[in-house]
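User: Predict the complex.
Assistant: Input components as received:
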Amino acid sequence: EVQLVESGGDLVQPGGSLRLSCATSGFTFNSYEMTWVRQAPGKGLEWISYISSIGSTKYYADSVKGRFTISRDNDKNSLHLQMHSLRAEDTAMYYCARGGAYYWDWGQGTLVTVSS
Amino acid sequence: EVVMTQSPATLSVSPGERATLSCRASQSVSSNLAWYQQKPGQAPRLLIYDASTRATGIPARFSGIGSGTEFTLTISSLQSEDFAVYYCQQYNNWPPITFGQGTRLEIK
């Protein structure tokens, strides 16, 4: 059974930093592209970042470019999102998802709240 | 960036009836379109990819059709568990991947 479990979400002040993680199991992690998608409270889905299976290619939404960094550890079957310079508009549920173009499986999400 | 527009925003349908949800792209996305279902408090679930291919385990009452800029998701006979929010998503011209704003399917 495929499992994706996000962690690291928290309440953080504007300008702060957080590192999200996604622990995976049930599939051959190093064979799959991975993605982060977020959802602000009561809003729709927003794609924010992509990483290729070996980590050589990374893409970001304009809204997070230069502030967020995606990475993966294929030895530990984990995906990460380092977030800096957080803003109120980054408040959202953050989901990791298996896939690059469309998303076969999703984690349950981790909540990031940016507020003073 | 490809803008995805879903209609209607809210659709009220009785159980057992057919529901038809629409998704329009601002430019052609060929057949590179997916549909997701999201229930309250849950993560999205992949229903359809490549515009018309059902994902693993998705019941046959869900069907997708379309190409280019116009797409439709049909649920042939609504079950109670089908009332949720549905999103379309294009993956033809990316980055960025873009989603529609969602259609809320509610019980009439």
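DSSP finds no helices and eleven strands in chain A.
Let me know if you want any component modeled separately.
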